[in-house]
Design goal:
With 439 residues, the chain is an alpha/beta fold. It has helices at residues 21-26, 52-55, 64-76, 88-100, 114-131, 152-157, 161-164, 183-186, 202-210, 236-246, 268-272, 299-305, 325-340, 343-359, 390-402, 423-438; strands spanning 31-35, 38-41, 46-49, 107-111, 139-143, 174-177, 189-190, 215-220, 250-254, 278-281, 293-297, 367-373, 376-381, 404-405, 407-409, 412-415.
Length: 439
């Protein structure tokens, strides 16, 4: 079919998520197909995917093994209920993920997205303490600038103001740690910054304020992606683990972005050497092909529910599409692709080249800070006076016209290319950004 025929002739019906709808519909950026590192637009242009879709297409677009697995599964078993029955691929995938996960995170609960994975982990945390007879532990602790999806639990523990301000009082019994973004001390740092480990002590302040016996869980992103690639200071995550363990508080890592190779390891927990009690994932689990999420859960938490009469449901929670057969097939094929193409190792091997390329932008007009780790990076820009976000958005639009898709958050340009990227493509991507900064 001619790509021109794929262009919609009416756009009003679709209310687009996280989009400036009026601007977009006046000047649409439409894609018709994708393969490897590139999108093809409806007018036939090639545009490099500098963000792996939305942090999810780690193996590149149209990965053959994943495509074939999905096509086969649709004809074999398209759907099976997850309540009181199952299918083999769900159990196979759970076993594969438990083997991949760090420490004793030996159990997996399937969801359909990162937002649902967060809601699931928060509910499990609350129910776990109740199962242990600690009914008073109902408080949840998030962090400023944190992003944990868009459902009510996620925006309550999240700390991005625009995601919260329009939706009422949100959940009660939630508090927030101070964020770790400190460009004055940590500006232009490759990898983890030197300063800020002491910010973990803010948890001690909250414990003293509320009482440890009231706190169920702390949830943080090991690397805050949606806030603009904010990396944890050296020692920060380790100290959070020490404090939570000392006070019987669960530690949840939101790894919807960092899991499945983004930092050169299977999980950010591996990269930073800290084992939480639960890990929330999605995105790269299926390479973005089919919506799916998964929560990795410690044996101690899981086993606390496995009491009482065996015919009784242990956890009253789940989704219509939990462990969907087609999603499971995509995820299994994605894990095979990551392993056989050694994509996690590839990301680790490219980390230095990637960071050097990004830091070549230091000193360019309006560049305020650069941060990077693994195959993810951010270029923070000085805002236009009185018009926040405009500089980054204008840069994004120029980059699109020049052949690269980037992502903006505030006045920050974020990049997280597919792990299949070549060094020449890194040069191309950063070159387009450089041209877009001075245009």
């Amino acid at each position: 079919m001619d790509n021109q025929l794929k262009r919609p002739n009416a756009m009003d019906a679709y209310w687009m998520p996280f989009t400036a709808n009026r601007q977009f519909k006046q000047s649409p950026r439409m894609v018709a197909s994708a393969e490897g590192m590139y999108y093809t637009t409806t007018d036939g242009r090639k545009v490099m995917d500098g963000t792996a879709g939305l942090w999810c297409v780690n193996a590149g677009h149209a990965a053959p093994r994943i495509t074939e697995a999905v096509q086969k599964q649709v004809t074999e078993l398209d759907y099976a209920p997850a309540f009181q029955m199952g299918h083999p691929k769900a159990f196979e995938l759970a076993a594969r993920l438990a083997e991949l996960a760090p420490g004793d995170l030996n159990h997996v609960f399937f969801t359909n997205s990162g937002s649902e994975s967060v809601e699931t982990a928060l509910k499990i945390a609350l129910a776990y303490h109740k199962a242990k007879g600690e009914q008073g532990r109902t408080r949840l602790i998030g962090r400023e600038k944190g992003y944990h999806g868009v459902n009510f639990g996620g925006i309550s523990v999240g700390g991005i103001v625009n995601n919260r301000r329009h939706f009422g009082s949100l959940l009660t019994g939630v508090d927030h740690l101070r964020h770790t973004h400190d460009p004055a001390r940590n500006g232009f740092t490759k990898g983890q910054p030197e300063h800020g480990a002491e910010l973990a002590e803010d948890l001690v302040r909250l414990i003293e304020l509320h009482g440890a016996e009231t706190i169920a869980a702390v949830i943080v992103e090991p690397m805050a992606g949606s806030a603009g690639v904010i990396l944890p200071p050296k020692g920060y995550l380790q100290r959070l683990r020490e404090i939570t363990r000392e006070h019987g508080i669960l530690l949840i890592f939101d790894e919807v972005i960092t899991a499945y190779g983004r930092l050169g390891r299977a999980f950010g927990a591996d990269y930073y050497g800290v084992e939480p009690d639960m890990i929330t994932t999605a995105k790269g689990l299926t390479n973005g092909v089919i919506p799916m999420g998964a929560v990795m859960i410690s044996s101690a938490i899981h086993d606390a529910f496995m009491t009482g009469p065996e015919h009784m449901i242990e956890l009253f929670h789940g989704y219509t599409y939990s462990g969907n057969p087609v999603a499971c097939a995509a995820a299994l094929a994605a894990l095979d692709t990551y392993r056989e193409e050694e994509l996690f190792e590839r990301a680790a091997a490219l980390e230095d080249y990637w960071s050097d390329a990004l830091f070549s932008l230091q000193g360019m007009p309006h560049v305020k800070d650069i941060r990077c780790s693994g195959l993810v990076g951010a270029v923070e820009l000085e805002p236009v006076a009185g018009v926040p976000t405009k500089r980054a958005f204008d840069t994004y639009l120029r980059a699109w016209d020049k052949g690269a898709h980037l992502r903006t958050t505030g006045d920050i340009i974020a990049m997280s290319p597919p792990l299949i990227i070549e060094k020449t493509e890194i040069d191309e991507l950063i070159g387009i950004l450089a041209e877009s900064l001075v245009a």
